[in-house]
Design goal:
By secondary structure, the protein is of the alpha+beta class. The chain has four helices and six strands. A hairpin with an 8-residue loop joins strand 5 and strand 6. Helix 1 crosses helix 4. The longest helix has 16 residues. It is globular.
Length: 107
């Protein structure tokens, strides 16, 4: 990164740490389930995790918070037959405002 002018650091780990610590009122546990990641040995991002990561990428590149549409293409669950479909952000992301703020503060 230090040798390439247009390369930078995306602070995903710091953003996830803040989310797990409950910054901006975010609660990652809902009904004893992690809303950010899923899995035992290999962790996969869920809708909240993907949302914070993409918000962080946008905030880092453009130095502003992204405009969030009413609906986004998001996963419907963690089962084998669950699929991506257009969903209301307010229903598929547990706390989009808090996650967006965490992302922006880690740019």
């Amino acid at each position: 990164m230090g040798f390439i002018k247009n390369a930078g650091l995306l602070r995903v780990g710091d953003a996830f740490k803040d989310a797990y610590e409950g910054k901006n009122g975010y609660k990652y546990l809902v009904a004893d389930k992690d809303n950010l990641r899923y899995g035992k040995q290999t962790l996969h991002l869920l809708n909240d995790g993907g949302f914070i990561q993409t918000s962080l990428l946008y905030s880092t590149i453009f130095d502003k918070k992204p405009s969030i549409p009413k609906k986004l293409l998001l996963i419907t669950g963690t089962g084998y037959f669950d699929a991506m479909r257009k969903q209301e952000v307010a229903n598929a992301i547990s706390n989009p405002k808090a996650l967006q703020e965490i992302a922006f503060n880690n740019r």
